[in-house]
Design brief:
With 353 residues, this protein is α/β, with parallel strands linked by helices. It is 42% helix and 12% strand. It is built from 13 helices and 10 strands. A 10-stranded mixed sheet has the order 1-2-8-7-6-9-10-5-3-4, with helices on both faces. Strand 6, helix 8 and strand 7 form a beta-alpha-beta unit.
């Protein structure tokens, strides 16, 4: 039976055959150190931008703005940003149907499909979708070796195998997981989806795969109207604020690690923000930073590689969306590379002396 409260309710927990019943809390000191002192790498490409019109609600400029701010403030160095490459068509076909990919590339999607997608078709849009998915895949490969990595795009969780939806053309996280599974790099994975909208495409793609645990915390009354069934769904009532959100996340996050994933994909959506036009929740910027820190620290403590992707964000003030996304990368830096922060701060202090 669902557990309910006035503030949030646990919609559903779908048991997975073959999953472990308890998280592995003890890891070796070597593994802990490997993750704790991870070198920073963040994937980005100018081709993440596609012209969809200046008045579109989707803030296509945010990807470059996040990169520029992180560089300007010194959170990232230029050598820590890696230019992503596109996924190959055959890699996309591990998730998406040949019919959809063929018509997407040819520009022959129907008007109904384009309305559902919510974005105008262009060659640049197709190109950015392949490059963004490539960034997530490359970040995942780095994370498996070094503990953590980020893509300054991605989290396109409304894309289904046979269609795009809700500003999501291709499902980058699903593609990354399927490629890594095919290569034998991983078997089990988990997705922590904290975008305010349920990841219906991701949930559907992995519905029959007990190796992949899908966890979504979202607005119960928000888009999509008809929710898919994730491994664990936590639906929140409109207007939930920091404390209640944090409590819901803290209560349910252990189920992710009980699955014993070999990698976690974290969709750090900016749209639970109180100033988001499509959010309907009421989290502060500081509360979203605390959310990021909770997820990332739980992965670090368990020495589980983690990949962060941006997912959605539609604040009335674009600067707020950019700041929230920047906070995710700042949290990665603070939690996984504290020694690097200290070294760089000491060097900066020495230069000023």
């Amino acid at each position: 039976m669902p557990r309910c409260s006035a503030r949030y309710f646990h919609l559903d927990y779908k048991s997975r055959p073959g999953t472990a019943g308890k998280a592995q809390e003890k890891v070796t000191r070597d593994a802990r150190d490997r993750v704790k002192f991870s070198p920073m790498r963040v994937w980005y490409n100018p081709r993440y931008y596609a012209d969809i019109g200046e008045n579109h609600v989707f803030p296509m400029r945010k990807f470059a703005l996040v990169r520029d701010r992180l560089l300007r403030e010194g959170t990232l160095r230029p050598d820590e940003i890696v230019e992503s490459r596109p996924v190959r068509v055959e890699e996309a076909l591990l998730v998406h149907t040949a019919d959809y990919v063929t018509r997407l590339r040819a520009g022959t999607l129907t008007e109904r499909e384009l309305r559902r997608l919510g974005l105008p078709w262009s060659k640049a849009l197709v190109r950015r979708s392949f490059f963004a998915a490539g960034g997530t895949l490359a970040a995942a490969r780095w994370a498996l070796e070094h503990g953590v990595a980020s893509n300054l795009a991605g989290g396109t969780h409304h894309a289904f195998a046979d269609r795009g939806e809700g500003f999501c053309v291709m499902n980058d996280v699903a593609i990354a997981i399927r490629v890594l599974q095919r290569e034998g790099a991983i078997e089990r994975a988990a997705i922590v989806d904290l975008d305010v909208h349920q990841g219906n495409g991701t949930a559907t793609i992995f519905a029959e795969d007990p190796r992949v645990f899908t966890f979504s915390v979202h607005g119960a009354k928000n888009y999509p109207l008809f929710k898919a069934r994730s491994s664990l769904d936590v639906g929140l009532t409109d207007g939930v604020r920091d404390d209640d959100y944090f409590a819901a996340l803290r209560d349910h996050l252990p189920a992710v690690f009980a699955h014993e994933p070999e990698i976690v994909f974290y969709l750090a959506g900016a749209d639970p923000y109180q100033g988001d036009r499509l959010g309907r929740l009421a989290l502060s910027i500081a509360g979203l930073r605390a959310r990021d820190e909770l997820v990332l620290d739980e992965c670090r403590r368990r020495a589980i590689p983690v990949v962060t992707v941006m997912a959605g964000g539609y604040a009335a003030d674009l600067n707020d969306t950019v700041e929230i996304h920047c906070h995710t990368i700042r949290a990665v830096r603070a939690i996984f590379a504290p020694s690097l922060i200290s070294t760089e701060q000491e060097a900066a202090d020495a230069r000023r002396a």
